TrEMBL record:
Gene3D superfamilies: Intergrase catalytic core
Name of a matching Pfam family: Phage_integrase
InterPro entries associated with the record: DNA_brk_join_enz, Integrase-like_cat_sf, Integrase_catalytic
Chain ranges of the Tyr recombinase domain: 166-255
Domain of life: Archaea
GO molecular function per UniProt: DNA binding
Protein name according to UniProt: Tyr recombinase domain-containing protein
GO BP field: DNA integration; DNA recombination
SUPFAM superfamilies documented for this protein: DNA breaking-rejoining enzymes
Keywords: DNA recombination
Length: 255
């Protein structure tokens, strides 16, 4: 019977089995088929055989496809609440662009082609950020819904590598001294000296309070611990300790 059915079209099978021309099914017919397939093993075998023959490619294609819903995006936004505002905004912006370009549908082929085309059209850096966001979305959201498909999609594309060609040369000691000597303002002079001596970032020096500067032991206590950066202490040279102490004293007198 199965061998005979392999050579027949659906309408031909309907004529042979039921003796009538096939008609369009409605939702009630679909539910009847599903219920019958659940209860009847022979009917279930016949159903899967026909599905494989007439809709096999479509079924396989959609089995490896994930349709992103509004609930998925809300869950992703909720997960990003743990990140900094800048990181959250960047991730949400990238997932928004990715969903727009992919039509809210993730598959092995579409993801791989998308990242390759994005790198070619907008550059490796843009593609890298978009790929990292997609991998995070798949890991945190898709895998929680469908672990097997999520793993397949996660491994279907790679994050492009970015080669930063420009590497600024280090400033010479002579140039640093020249810049330092050309600064007239005492506060600006001290600020520049701290940057040069400690290697701290500009924002880190700007946010320092007097309580964080231990002049007796020559230590700046940053105690910074975020999701991406960790910095605890930095040391001051003896000359800088003395100069910084004088600057603080003058600042307190003039304030």
């Amino acid at each position: 019977m199965e061998k005979v059915l392999q050579f027949l079209a659906p309408d031909e099978i309907a004529r042979i089995v039921y003796g009538k021309k096939i008609e369009k099914a409605d939702i009630n017919d679909l539910l009847k088929v599903i219920n019958t397939a659940v209860e009847d093993p022979q009917f279930r075998s016949l159903l899967f055989m026909m599905l494989n023959r007439f809709l096999g490619d479509y079924v396989r294609q959609n089995t490896n496809n994930y349709v992103v819903t509004e609930e998925d995006l809300k869950l992703f936004e909720k997960i990003l609440e743990q990140k900094s505002k800048a990181t959250k905004d960047e991730r949400l912006r990238n997932i928004k662009y990715a969903m727009r370009d992919l039509g809210f549908s993730l598959s092995l082929e579409s993801l791989k082609e998308y990242i390759i085309e994005l790198a070619a059209e907008e550059g490796s850096n843009v593609a890298r950020h978009r790929a990292n966001t997609l991998k995070l979305f798949i890991k945190e959201v898709v895998m929680s819904r469908n672990p097997i498909l999520g793993q397949i999609l996660y491994n279907s594309f790679k994050v492009p590598k970015v080669n930063y060609k420009y590497s600024p040369p280090p400033l010479s000691l002579e140039l640093l001294k020249k810049i330092f000597n050309s600064i007239d303002h005492l506060g600006a002079k001290t600020f520049f000296l701290i940057l040069a001596e400690t290697g701290l970032r500009v924002g880190e020096v700007y946010s320092l309070s007097v309580e964080q500067v231990d002049l007796d032991n020559g230590i700046i206590k940053l105690m910074k611990n975020s999701a991406t950066k960790r910095a605890y202490i930095s040391f001051l040279l003896r000359k800088l300790q003395t100069g910084l102490g004088r600057t603080i004293c003058l600042s307190e007198k003039t304030s």
